[in-house]
Design goal:
Two copies of one chain form a homodimer. The first copy, chain A, is an all-alpha fold and 306 residues long. Helix content of chain A is 70%, strand content 1%. The interface between A and B is large, with 56 and 56 residues.
């Protein structure tokens, strides 16, 4: 059960390998839980599968698996929540890529959904992915206790809603048109990417009915890690290649968009990301050796090239 | 508590009056539960309020209030679920009206959301309304029993997802481009509008922990009523005025779209709607006199002019 905690080695290579193995497990469950194309609406299921099953790091669901391992949550439960997290993430990518939003043509190394299908299908596939995430969590196989499932659904609804992902994307669109300060950018990222990352980490603790101190520690870890992750994303938009990232690069600067890198410069942004990752580690002390993988993951996040 | 059941009179006028009173109650709760505009993302909350608070019949949430009255559910509980139903409905209207979907300019007598704001804001406001519906149901104020709240969330997720509203809208878009038979149109409507109407009716029974026979009767009532409602919608698109309906009329024929009216003709469509309403009534026998309002509502639906 403790496949990530038990993962040997300390280098970035070891983390990448463990993440790839966990991603393969997650993809297997996604395959099973995504609807099969059938009936006159089959195009919808096809589009959902295209968007979700494209190769990805599965960073968020891996966080759920890793935090669930801390509390000896059965793998089957953890995987269902991990998959729900990935569905919510995939939905946000599909909508963020739309022509009326960020107008992106490449994602995860393949044409974005509206390019491959069409805009209407992309809106609908996104619209279908989030309720599917809720359905998966609501099912008794996720956890025998209804209170636990309900708490997960409530937290996911908050992370996905106006005080989470959607609110963050709204700010993101608005800062394209007017200058923004570091406070606005931080709030934007905390809502847009931070809220779901925090949910992904806390979910393991909820499934394991962990004490509040553990939950708060994981939320704090997620908050710092999420910001570090986002700063590195901004850096990769400046310094990365389309080949490595699987999406268009250089677009933020092209839009004159306020990002951490635009506001801080490359060097200070990199320092800030490293500092945030260190800060993330500090929250894990209460888990002692059991959090070794989460520590390595935090370092991996700031060193990643895609 | 039994404001709808106790509503006097039998004519359509009485139903319209009772619905208006219930709609005012629902609107009051919507006002309170929609987020207040604040922070850099305030535009999102403004857009959500614009879309949801526009005057509407509140047909779906009234169904939730009326079915909840059958089982003596506290008004406060019933209103929270009714509001969640209306949010889910408003979200679907905002997305269906988008340029890449039905490309509508008027809704509920005012410019559609993407016309008033912009397309990106309309996508996001829609995206924010559904999670808000889930948050409202998940809150303990909706019902003291977590199992009940969870069951409502699970049913709403199903009604909103690929085997519900979104699947139906996918079929709707596809039948614009190729001929469809009555079976396809029926399936489209059962998913697109029927699933949420069924949820709205069943929700009262779930809140009241009604026996399965009662739940099944209400689902059957909802299924027939939902189709009758939709056929009348199609008829109003042919025979109604923009002034009365608050939206563009004649658009289905303009698109050469397969609808009940296109396939059956006006007269047979009207007969079919009346027959479905009668069929809906038959399912209410087990509730005897207590279902008088639901019966009047079914008749009202087929006689309505908007």
């Amino acid at each position: 059960m403790e496949r990530l905690i038990a993962q040997p080695g300390t280098g970035a290579g070891g983390v990448a390998e463990a993440m790839a193995a966990a991603a393969a497990e997650i993809d297997g469950v996604l395959q099973n839980l995504l609807p099969e194309p059938s009936g006159p609406e089959r195009r919808l299921a096809e589009a959902m599968r295209y968007a979700v099953l494209a190769p990805g790091k599965r960073f968020r669901p891996v966080l759920s698996l890793a935090t669930a391992e801390l509390f000896a949550v059965p793998r089957r439960s953890a995987l269902r929540v991990a998959v729900a997290v990935e569905l919510a993430h995939a939905y946000s990518l599909v909508h963020d890529d739309l022509p009326c939003m960020d107008d992106d043509e490449m994602r995860r190394g393949q044409p974005t959904l509206h390019k491959k299908y069409d805009e209407a299908t992309a809106v609908l596939a996104g619209d279908a992915l989030l309720p599917l995430a809720f359905e998966i969590i609501a099912h008794p196989e996720t956890h025998p206790d209804a209170e636990v499932r309900l708490e997960l659904m409530r937290a996911l609804a908050e992370a996905a809603g106006p005080r989470g992902m959607v609110g963050g994307q709204m700010i993101d669109l608005l800062v394209e048109h007017k200058p923004a300060d570091i406070g606005t950018i931080t709030r934007m990222q905390q809502l847009k990417t931070g809220a779901l990352i925090a949910f992904a980490c806390e979910a393991g603790a909820v499934l394991g009915r962990a004490p509040n101190t553990a939950r708060q520690a994981l939320r704090a870890y997620a908050r710092d890690l999420g910001l570090a992750f986002q700063i590195v994303d901004d850096l990769l938009d400046v310094e990365g290649s389309e080949e490595a990232t699987g999406k268009r690069v250089g677009k933020d600067a092209g839009l004159g968009k306020a990002t951490f890198v635009a506001l801080l410069g490359v060097d200070r942004a990199r320092t800030q990301a490293t500092m945030l990752a260190d800060q993330a580690l500090a929250h894990l002390d209460i888990f002692a050796e059991r959090a070794a993988f989460l520590r390595r993951l935090a370092r991996f996040v700031v060193q990643r090239s895609h």
